[in-house]
Write a structure and sequence with these properties.
With about 325 residues, this protein is an all-alpha fold. It contains 14 helices and no strands. Helix content is about 80%, strand content about 0%.
Length: about 325
């Protein structure tokens, strides 16, 4: 994880010094590749250092740190963008990433102290791939991965086109600034609900009910957007708060569900890497689908594309909520 995090630095430097679109894309792709490698490794640390009876509490704290990080990033972006110092954004972020390696390294200090298992005869490539993907072929962990995939797709479908929605439908004068404020409202609400949800999921020994509630809140917000096309700013911010409840509750138990259903704790790093992909892959697929829907339906009728995009998000949230009911070993 440490090596992958450090290797993001050249990508940030490329973006900070970019003078062409190609250089910016290369830098962004570089950062995404190594950052996702680090994220997958980080996901594998969790079940190694957290007792099983505290998975919910740990999941809540993880959600809180992710949300506080997102809020801090948005706030930093707002300050630097407002001061017309956008290039500094790409230099601040790697400093923060390197700083976070210190507590992570301390928490995972015991990893690697046990001897590696003896080497066995290497299987064929086909057998190795099958074994690698086995957790996704059935069982509760596969349902957790599928659930995360759909919920992440719904979140991405909403987040990607909100700036355009606020510009074209809500008609705010500064869509970028308004979007930053809206997401800050989401995160301010998500943090306490993430902490509370994680704690209660351990106390009540229930995880799925929080996913049901999360899907309901997030789908409700998308539904109000497409039915009413709200323009009253207090209502739009109120919907942001409602969305924050669902966002916080989902990530409060997201990690805990994965840790609870790991098919083999001795291979948790590999399997949690698959779990991590279920979050990052929709961030590529959902915008491609949403972009097509937005363009196609906006050509048929002005702004109707937003109804199609947010309707697709509702479908993703519903699927994520329905499939979590297939997890049998967790209440």
């Amino acid at each position: 994880m440490i090596g992958a995090s450090i290797l993001t630095l050249p990508g940030f430097l490329l973006m900070a010094t970019s003078h062409s679109y190609l250089q910016l894309v290369i830098g962004y792709a570089w950062v995404q590749f190594f950052f996702n490698a680090a994220g997958a490794a980080f996901a594998g640390i969790i079940p190694d250092v957290v007792p099983a009876q505290q998975f919910g509490r740990a999941s809540g704290f993880l959600a809180t740190m992710v949300q506080l990080g997102s809020g801090g990033g948005l706030f930093t972006y707002g300050l630097l963008h407002g001061a017309h110092q956008d290039r500094w954004i790409f230099l601040v972020f790697p400093v923060v990433i390197l700083a976070t390696l210190i507590p992570t390294s301390l928490a995972a200090a015991g990893e690697g102290s046990e001897p590696l298992p003896p080497r066995v005869e290497q299987p064929s490539i086909g057998a190795a791939v099958t074994e690698f993907l086995r957790p996704m072929l059935g069982g509760d962990f596969a349902w957790v991965i599928l659930t995360r995939f759909f919920v992440s797709a719904g979140i991405t479908a909403v987040a990607t086109y909100l700036l355009n929605f606020f510009r074209d439908v809500v008609r705010v004068s500064d869509p970028a600034g308004f979007l930053t404020l809206w997401f800050l409202v989401v995160l301010l609400v998500a943090v306490p609900f993430g902490l509370l949800g994680g704690h209660l999921s351990d106390r009540l020994n229930r995880r799925k009910v929080f996913v049901y509630a999360s899907g309901g809140f997030q789908a409700f917000v998308a539904l109000v957007f497409i039915v009413f096309f709200p323009t009253a700013l207090p209502l739009v911010f109120g919907l942001g708060a409602a969305y924050g409840i669902g966002y916080g509750l989902y990530y409060a138990v997201d990690w805990a569900l994965a840790c609870d259903t790991l098919p083999d704790r001795s291979k948790s790093a590999k399997d949690m890497g698959l779990f991590h992909v279920a979050q990052t892959l929709p961030q590529t697929i959902a915008p491609a689908i949403g972009g097509f829907l937005l363009d196609y339906f906006n050509h048929l009728s002005p702004n109707s594309g937003y109804r199609a995009v947010f309707a697709s998000a509702i479908v993703f949230f519903v699927l994520g909520t329905v499939f979590v009911s297939r997890i049998r070993s967790v209440r």
